[in-house]
Amino acid sequence: MTVKQQISKEYGPGSATGSSDSLMNTRAYFRQLRWRLGLGIFLCFIIPHAILSAYFHFQFTATLKTTGKLNLEALAKSQRNTVALFLREREMNIRNLVFTREFSLDPSEATMLFFLQRLKQISDAFVDVGFLGAQGIQTGYAGPFPQLRGKDYRHEAWFTTLVEQDRDYIITDIYMGFRNQPHFTIAVKQVVTNQLCIMRATIDPDKFYMFLRSISRGREVETTLINSSGTYQIVDPHKGTLLGASSFLPPTGQESGVLEMGSPGGTVLTAYAWLAETGWTLIISQPLSIVHAQMYRTRTIMIINQFIIIVVLAMVIWLMVSRLVSKAREAAEQTHMLQKQLIHASKLASVGELATGIAHEINNPLAIITSTTGVIRDMLNPEFHLDSSPEDIGKELDTIETAAFRASGITHQLLDFGRNNEPRKTMCNLNDLLASVINGMKKHQLNLSDIEVITSYDESLPATCVDGDQITQVFLNLINNAGDAITGKGTITVTTGVEPGYVKVMVQDTGSGMTSDQIKRIFDPFYTTKEAGKGTGLGLSISLSIVDAMDGSIEVQSLPGKGSLFTVSLPITQCRDAGSQEIRS
Amino acid sequence: MKILLVDDEDSFRESLKKQLAIRGYDVTAVSTGEQALESLERQAVDVVLLDMRMPGMDGVMTLGAIKRQSPTTEVIIVTGHATVKTAMDVMEKGAFDYITKPMRLEELIYKIQDAVRKKELKEQGNNGR
Predict the structure, then answer these.
(1) Residues of A190-221 as b/e, b for ≥16 C-beta within 10 angstroms?
(2) How confident is the model over A255-267, as pLDDT tens digits?
(3) What is the ipTM for the molecules in this complex?
(4) Contact status of B119 with chain A (Cβ, < 8 Å)
(5) Quick check: A356 and B15 CB within 8 A?
(6) Which residues of A touch B100 (CB under 8 A)?
């Protein structure tokens, strides 16, 4: 049976650095756990939330865009209707003049003035009023252009059209006319006592524009009227000039419509509605940003709300996770503390064992000294008639001396064991250290014995930061033990090798080997399998504490009757400087 | 008076044997518990001086075996270190007394004499019954 025992640095002497390291590891682990857990839960909440939000946002935007278009088109239609009504009303106002008491086929100037006053009372858009006979001569006029009285309108387009058409009124496009100023004419023809007569009035485009402005609702809504050939009839002075050509002519196929148009100031939503009466189109346009302003505002509010929800959610999750994780961490740290206390307790126990061991190991040679002293005293006592030759006494004194040195050897080793000095670390090649240890031993201990030492060094072994003296002592102990385990003929094989991050030294012997019970105890101070006086039981304890302090480990494999294998693993480190500090490579 | 000395320390065993022999004791010295039992089988003794820490059978085990083999033989434990607990332990297991190393010879002899006296009393009691 092969018994393998890993002596972990957690449980060896000098584990203080190791346990604080692992405490840091625990803390790091829980920090990481808190992040992972928090993020995981947060994402679990946030991903469905984000998908739903995106979906609703998309739907909302699409609906609002459609609604915005429909609204503007409805506005265009309603304004168109208002304009149509306005024009019809003005036409009716003019028609009604014919049916007044004051009307005659040859109206006087006063009558015309009365007519104008009456019209202006109804609407301030009226500029002047005129009366024309069937020949097209304006016989009556009241208004700011008196030169128009007596003017011949026979060849004017509106006149000929009105006379020829079936419909008894006409509303002209805007034109300059005799007065050389833009205006509309509304004219009504009537037959009075078998005579065709025409009552006409003109409308001030500016006033008409003001009227349009007054009926338009909404911010930055621009209302324009153009005729069927694209000439402005009514226009915002900033946008164009009367009688100028419009850049946009809506399609004639539909009674109304809406479309998006690019413009230098951004995309503009434009709605149009055709007036059946005059063949004009009412166009209203509004920047898309204004149309969508409400939508953008709602969207901004929604985004802010979402953000607040997410932040609150994140905070709640973080708080909950933090509480949970810190509880778990406390529990883990408590376990860790208990473990540390256990290690401390076991260390105290081993101090107790140490004391027992010291007492025993020192009292034994002292007992030899006292009893041998007693023997000498007996030899010198004439009562006993014993042989007291100097040779015999000398032999007894040798025994005393040997015992005294044995006791002093124990105290020396004990000092080494108890010494807690910072190791003096330098870059060492373990191959060289081993070679000098083995050479030294061959000269002395191993010289006379039948033990063969085989070495197999890994030449690529990197140097590492260790205390050369201390590690030499470890090798010395291991090779000494190997030698002691062999009775008679045998072999000690010393091998070095590299593993990722570690250098390894293996000391194998063909000696007596150990049982699993023995292996469990070999690192205990004063535990020895050697015969009395040969071993103190401190070698492996000291070796383990040295290797431990270097963050290494000692592994034991043994088979009773076949031999043992000790493997020392040391981390490959670089000395930071010539001093005592080191860093992990 | 026959004494069996059991101790794995060669020098101690030899010197103590010499000292006791010169004072008229018939001392047999062995180095292990196993040897002690063998020796007792061959020849009974009055008192056994028994070391506690020995390779193989330790003092406590040997004590038990001796007491089973010859209950009247008195055993004095000789130990490098004794706590109250180990003392109680060995006394409970039938040791006559214990003494810690290093010890004064006079003290040891005193204890040996006590043990022998006790043994004789016990034997008289047994014979008288």
Answers:
(1) beeeeeebbbbbbbbbeebbebbeeebeeeeb
(2) 899 988 887 778 8
(3) 0.85
(4) no
(5) no
(6) 363
